[in-house]
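User: Just a sanity check before I run the rest of the batch. Below are the structure tokens for the first item. I only need the designed sequence back.
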């Protein structure tokens, strides 16, 4: 049974005070939700405020990135023990904006993943092709390469802890969502790849869709058999839109 997960990626938005307000509104608006998980990934500076605000609720605190070393001379980085200490339960790894602007590669995704799997945190590993790669027919190959590199060395117990997020780069922040059919086709391909590597356990892995998820497209997306939730950017910054997405009607 794959429990649906709706995760909000706040990116570089919200001061601690603003974050507290948004977290409170989501907490209050989601009290009736029990059959799905909800996670929020504020910036590092707001983790403590959000942790305090959602304490005792079912909401999950997530971070947007993590370094693979436990501690040391890595100016500007944050480690797994720091995120655990801050109250995080999940962490996003390999977001396309990290790949595009900050030199993230499949190899560094893999290092982060290994560090996270050695802890209690659950990783949300992002994959997805650019428009150029899709238009030249390379989208399957690109995503399979990201999976092979990012998940290198993954064991079966590890597989059961990871969450994947298929996020076509051309749909992120563009208002251009993948149609439910395109998203389903890619999710099914990803699950097929996992099955080839790991067998039946692939059926247990949650694969989220990300890319301009909004209140008016979430229901159709969630009707697809291999879409197990959403990673939401822009639409998670306002309580009304995020709460409507959380309350999707499959
Ligand atoms: C994201 O940040 O992962 C994302 C999908 O953003 P948006 O929903 O704004 O496209």
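Assistant: Here's the designed sequence for the first item:
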């Amino acid at each position: 049974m794959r429990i649906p997960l709706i995760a909000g990626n706040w990116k570089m938005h919200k001061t601690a005070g603003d974050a507290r307000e948004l977290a409170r509104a989501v907490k209050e608006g989601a009290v009736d939700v029990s059959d799905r998980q909800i996670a929020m990934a504020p910036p590092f500076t707001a983790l403590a405020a959000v942790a305090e605000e959602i304490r005792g609720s079912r909401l999950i605190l997530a971070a947007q990135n993590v370094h693979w070393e436990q501690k040391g001379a890595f100016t500007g980085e944050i480690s797994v023990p720091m995120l655990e200490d801050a109250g995080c339960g999940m962490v996003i790894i390999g977001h396309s904006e990290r790949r595009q602007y900050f030199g993230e590669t499949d190899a560094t995704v893999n290092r982060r993943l290994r560090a996270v799997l050695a802890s209690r945190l659950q990783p949300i590993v992002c994959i997805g092709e650019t428009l150029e790669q899709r238009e030249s027919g390379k989208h399957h190959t690109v995503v399979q390469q990201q999976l092979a590199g990012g998940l290198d060395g993954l064991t079966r117990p590890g597989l059961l802890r990871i969450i994947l997020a298929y996020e076509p780069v051309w749909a992120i922040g563009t208002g251009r969502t993948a149609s439910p059919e395109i998203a389903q086709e890619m999710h099914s391909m990803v699950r097929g790849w996992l099955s080839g590597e790991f067998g039946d356990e692939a059926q247990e892995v949650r694969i989220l869709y990300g890319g301009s998820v909004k209140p008016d497209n979430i229901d159709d997306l969630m009707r697809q058999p291999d879409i197990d939730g959403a990673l939401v950017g822009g639409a998670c910054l306002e309580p009304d839109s995020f709460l409507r997405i959380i309350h999707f009607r499959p």
